[in-house]
TrEMBL record:
Protein name according to UniProt: N-(5'-phosphoribosyl)anthranilate isomerase
A Pfam family the protein falls into: PRAI
Organism name: Companilactobacillus allii
Keyword terms: Amino-acid biosynthesis, Aromatic amino acid biosynthesis, Isomerase, Tryptophan biosynthesis
InterPro entries listed in its UniProt record: Aldolase_TIM, PRAI_dom, RibuloseP-bd_barrel, TrpF_fam
Chemical reaction(s) catalysed: N-(5-phospho-beta-D-ribosyl)anthranilate = 1-(2-carboxyphenylamino)-1-deoxy-D-ribulose 5-phosphate
Amino acid sequence: MTKIKICGLMTIEDIDAVNQAKPDFAGFIFAGGRHHIDLDQAIKLREHLDPRIISVGVFVDAPIEEILKAVNSGAISIVQLHGNESEEVVDYLHDKNIKVIQVFNPTDEKFNTGADYTMLDSDSGEILDWKNLLIIPDILAGSINSANVDKAIKIVKPKIIDVSRGVETNGKKDINKIRQIVNEVHNS
């Protein structure tokens, strides 16, 4: 069964929605942008999150101390590296028994195979050309929504689908869209 991560959670209402839909992973973004939250917010959201849902923290070239603080606080269980982090950073996190998702985009010529999961994301908001991927990722992201998730799973066969904006209406998480895509992925 393919799993799913709902990323970019920011509010208690977002947490309530994922608690009802039961995705496998929930993502908190510490990397700036529209979905950015701080550690105090993430701790509060994690307290409300169903303990069976694994929390992931998204970082872009963050200081290792910041990453460790988020893990040690209990806000997150897995670290997602979305920048230009080196293999040494991945190795250091592994030495601390922290699982790592390393994110790549289709133009990357090499990728870190030391991570627990590789994730392919378009970084452009565009749908990837799934039929011509050079990297077959563990996790697939990039403009995925209910209308195209079945096709993405059939073509790429990722272990995990990652969505954020694809489950939003007017810039906010939409419980109906979350429920629908979680059901589609879990039944694929």
